[in-house]
Amino acid sequence: MDKIEQKIIDLIEKHRDDIIAIGRDIWKEPELGYKEERTAGKFNRYMEKFGIHTESHLAVTGVKGYLKGAGAPGPTVALIGEMDALPMADSPYASAETGAAHCCGHNAQMAGLMGALYALSDAQVQEALDGNVAFMAVPAEEFVEMEFKHGLMEQGAIAFGGGKSELIRVGAFDDIDIAVGHHIAPGIGVALSNHRSNGFMSKIVRFHGIPSHAAEAPWSGVDALSAAALGIQAVNAQREFFRDRDTVRVHGFISKGGEAMNVVADNVTMEYSVRANNIPAILDASRKFDRAMRAGAVATGCGAEIITMPGYLPIVPAGDTRAVEEAIAAAAGDYAVEQHDPGIVMGGSTDFGEVSQILPLLQFNTGGYSHELHNKEMHPTDEYLAYVVTAKVFALTAYHLLKHKGGYAGALMESHEAVLTKEAYIQYMERHNRVETIQMEPIVME
């Protein structure tokens, strides 16, 4: 361990209580995507404390600031924290005001991101960085509240549902050479995360029927709930015909199912995700899902709208992970360093996948939480591991990438083969952002 590494560790250790306080504070005030005003405000004020000018309201609530100011020479490494929480009003850790809970662990990302600044702001550490560091607090990683997000799209406030997707669109990643991200993984110590994941398309399906008395005159109605049920069964009939190697997942729920048991349902809304680990398989599963929904509408005579919102793309693993691996080794202390399995395909999705399609992405995991991700009982159990060790890995990764004239950064950038340009990515997203309308069949009674 060289003297700069040791100084980074010592500075973060000196402020361990402050970093834990940040994690607790954000944990107590969870907010949903594109509504993270308080969290963004906290991040802004924190950056100002270190004399860092920020750009605010990027992708509605996103914030970005540079350690050495915009345009500093050398590679620019982005350290990224996600601000949003999950809609889990029945979690014992939920906010009564927002109905949200950080049962995703994003508060740990923010604590680690902000905690890294205690070390990286030091003059001697900055001098050792042959490049710049951008601190990015990003909104809306969790692809939930789809109707709310679709409303923002209709208003022109956003074009895409995911926060990083929108940040790519508005140019916030244009000057970023390497991205560094983190996620909580309950039950582990510290680990490299560098494997593939699923991507997905998001669906909102609205079936439109005709209400009538369900007992007295059901023949006068058209049942939107039956249309939804048939659509679901049509999807289920196709499940065994998805290829195993594509890790297809189709899942969702009925967010509105009618008004009363004795009224034929005239409006039913469903929200679904259609996932796979490569773009052709995502598009194939998306077509099959749409076909199933059409079948439900046609069979019952309902009208329907099938709204497709392109979600996230699969993660492209990084080619050179030495910087984060060495950071983990230096930061882990007495915690176990977990073995990385590059053959894993993560069933879930993240908008880090968008970033990895365009530029190199390094990711790592820390533990320190109970239960599994997205469980309403999930909560911090080891705040030092979740927040302080995360801050160390963030800061040390930036240092390893940028030290010695940015040797590791250069090697990583050289090894990365971009799948998409920014322009090609936006074209993909716009092409698959669509609404299909199915007309209701009129009732004809002799």
Describe the secondary structure blueprint for this structure.
Blueprint: H1 3-14, H2 16-28, H3 37-49, E1 54-58, E2 62-66, E3 76-82, E4 86-87, E5 100-101, H4 106-120, H5 123-127, E6 132-138, H6 146-155, H7 163-170, E7 178-184, E8 190-193, E9 196-197, E10 199-208, H8 224-236, E11 249-256, E12 267-276, H9 279-300, E13 303-310, H10 322-331, E14 337-338, E15 345-346, H11 352-358, E16 361-366, H12 383-415, H13 422-431, E17 434-438
Parallel strand pairs: 3-6, 3-7, 7-16, 8-14, 9-15
Antiparallel strand pairs: 1-2, 2-6, 4-5, 8-16, 10-12, 10-13, 11-12, 13-17
Helix pairs in contact: 1-4, 1-12, 2-4, 2-12, 4-12, 8-9, 10-12
Key phrases:
446 residues, alpha/beta, 38% helix, five-stranded antiparallel β-sheet, Alpha-Beta Plaits, Aminopeptidase, eight-stranded mixed β-sheet, 21% strand
Count the helices. How many? 13
Widest β-sheet, arrangement of strands: 1-2-6-3-7-16-8-14
List the helices and strands in order.
Answer: HHHEEEEEHHEHHEEEEHEEHEHEEHEHHE
Q: How much helical structure, as a percent, in the residues? A: 25-40%
Structural class: alpha/beta
Give the low-pLDDT segments.
none
Mean pLDDT: 96
Number of domains: 2
DSSP summary, beta strand count: 17
Radius of gyration: 23 Å
CATH class of the largest domain: Alpha Beta
- The CATH topology annotation of the largest domain reads as Aminopeptidase
Q: Biggest sheet, open or closed, and with what strands and sense?
A: 8 strands, mixed
User: Which architecture name of the largest domain does CATH use?
Assistant: 3-Layer(aba) Sandwich
Q: What is the terminal-to-terminal distance?
A: 87 Å
What overall geometry do the principal axes of the alpha carbons give?
elongated
Give the DSSP E fraction (strand runs of 2 or more residues): 15-25%
Under CATH, the homologous superfamily of the largest domain reads Zn peptidases
